[in-house]
């Protein structure tokens, strides 16, 4: 049997984290020849993940520019990818999720006549502009792709309702849970980060102290919504003298300016550089509560039993909301303050949300995706769909 040549294209931190377990498995599997192309839409935040998972790209377009626009990312990625696909001539191209790299990768595959597989397919809010531009990126990527690896049954349903052929949709679970299972350890050491190495033992020694972990960066929250989030955090720090806030701030200068302006001088607001993923996952495991507008964190925290308040009005990840471990609170200062205060003050309300649930995966998503690819090329039976109510 000839080996399947698969070119994976990604460019940002979340894509890299979620493609890493799949790529590691593909590199060990004799059925595949695995090639990696990074657009490097992110640079430092991407390199952190490549380093952690020991992934070496075969192609690096190095497109990141400070304060880049969507036009710049799309044009530079698309132009670079023409040559890469020409050179690599893969049997299949893989993209992940909903970034501008994802969309450019799927469009480049289409222009080059190479079938495209979309990992984390079928997520929808139903509002084409929310989140912006991710909802449109994922819809367009879906239209351009042949194979659709939907993390959940609901994502599959979204694709079916848009007319995607059922035989091309595989419910696999989310590869982020595969990644999480390799990173979280009870004896994890934070010695690479002196501030955390000092703070965490202090927190462990004080039963009344609580760690609030925050991550926010979404484009639609830039400006006043992010300022309002930061004001709510400041109000919480003032109201709860034993609360410690840890906010690893995204490299985006727009986000950094606002976070610094409101929280930079508060002694219990720890604004850190983006953490490497193993540190971030282990910090989530030690946090009391998480506030975020990030997509990936909404998927990871429930499986660690951590309540999440989502700083958005809509989510494309409703499964954990339904399970009761994630709540949408939006970006209004008073709503964030009151929802957080309730979880800090009311142990019953906290316990009701702090349950470990796994709607997004069982750690075997990568395995199912590889089998689905082999199935598509006539080399394996169709994999069984991921079903969260079935034990692995
Ligand atoms: C991008 C994705 C978003 C995803 C997010 C994950 C798009 C349009 N947006 O948003 O879907 O949720 O990544 O984090 O695809 N920067 C650095 N170093 C880095 C990364 C970013 O300096 O390693 C700075 C640069 O100034 C860059 C800016 O951040 O221009 C914005 O990066 P960009 O990828 O355009 O947008 P994100 O907000 O990161
Ligand atoms: N993450 C990380 N370091 C940090 C903050 C987050 O490694 O300092 C991880 C997090 O665990 C999750 C992913 O980054 O796996 C989410 O990426 P991001 O929030 O940038 O993008 P989104 O998921 O919103 O697209």
How is this structure best described in words?
The protein is built from 16 helices and 13 strands. With 392 residues, the chain is α/β, with parallel strands linked by helices. The strands form two sheets. The protein has a seven-stranded parallel beta sheet with strand order 3-2-1-4-5-6-7, with helices on both faces. Helix 1 packs across helix 7, helix 1 packs across helix 16 and helix 3 crosses helix 4. Bound molecules: uridine-diphosphate-N-acetylglucosamine (UD1) and uridine-5'-diphosphate. The site of uridine-diphosphate-N-acetylglucosamine has 25 residues, from helix 1, helix 2 and helix 3. The site of uridine-5'-diphosphate has 16 residues, from helix 1, helix 11 and helix 12.
Bound molecules: uridine-diphosphate-N-acetylglucosamine, uridine-5'-diphosphate
Structural class: alpha/beta
**Distance from first to last alpha carbon:** 30 Å
User: H/E element string?
Assistant: EHEHEHEHEHEHEHHEHEHEHEHEHEHHH
User: What amount of the residues lies in strands?
Assistant: 5-15%
Large-scale geometry: globular
Radius of gyration: 21 Å
Give the total of beta strands: 13
Spatial arrangement of strands, main beta sheet: 3-2-1-4-5-6-7
> What percent of residues adopt helix (DSSP H or I)?
40-55%
């Amino acid at each position: 049997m000839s080996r399947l040549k698969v070119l994976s294209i990604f460019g940002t931190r979340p894509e890299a984290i979620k493609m890493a377990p799949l790529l590691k498995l593909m590199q060990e599997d004799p059925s595949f020849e695995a090639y990696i192309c990074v657009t490097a839409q992110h640079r430092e935040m991407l390199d952190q993940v490549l380093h952690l998972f020991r992934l070496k790209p075969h192609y690096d377009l190095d497109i990141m520019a400070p304060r880049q626009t969507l036009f710049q990312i799309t044009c530079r990625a698309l132009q670079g990818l023409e040559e890469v696909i020409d050179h690599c001539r893969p049997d299949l191209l893989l993209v992940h999720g909903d970034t501008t790299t994802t969309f450019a990768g799927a469009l480049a595959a289409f222009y080059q006549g190479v079938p495209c597989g979309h990992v984390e397919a079928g997520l929808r809010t139903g509002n084409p502009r929310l989140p912006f531009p991710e909802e449109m990126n994922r819809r367009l990527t879906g239209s351009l792709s042949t194979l659709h690896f939907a993390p959940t049954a609901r994502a599959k349903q979204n694709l079916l309702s848009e007319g995607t052929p059922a035989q091309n949709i595989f419910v696999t679970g989310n590869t982020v849970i595969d990644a999480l299972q390799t990173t979280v350890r009870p004896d994890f050491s934070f010695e690479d980060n002196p501030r955390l190495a000092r703070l965490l033992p202090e927190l462990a020694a004080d039963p009344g102290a609580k760690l609030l972990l925050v991550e926010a960066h979404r484009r639609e929250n830039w400006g006043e919504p992010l300022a309002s989030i930061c004001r709510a955090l400041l109000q919480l720090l003032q109201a709860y003298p034993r609360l410690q806030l840890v906010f690893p701030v995204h490299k985006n200068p727009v986000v950094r300016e606002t976070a610094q302006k409101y929280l930079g001088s508060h002694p219990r607001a720890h604004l850190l550089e983006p953490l490497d993923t193993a540190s971030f996952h282990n910090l989530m495991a030690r946090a009391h509560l998480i506030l975020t507008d990030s997509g990936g964190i909404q998927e990871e925290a429930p499986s660690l039993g951590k309540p999440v308040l989502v700083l958005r009005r809509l989510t494309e990840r409703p499964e954990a909301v339904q399970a009761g471990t994630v709540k949408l609170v939006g970006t209004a200062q008073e709503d964030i303050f009151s929802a957080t205060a309730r979880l800090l003050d009311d142990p019953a309300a906290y316990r009701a949300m702090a349950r470990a649930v796994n709607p997004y995966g069982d750690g075997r998503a990568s395995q199912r995706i590889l089998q689905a690819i082999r199935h598509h090329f006539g080399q394996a039976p169709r994999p069984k769909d991921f079903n969260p109510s079935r034990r692995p």
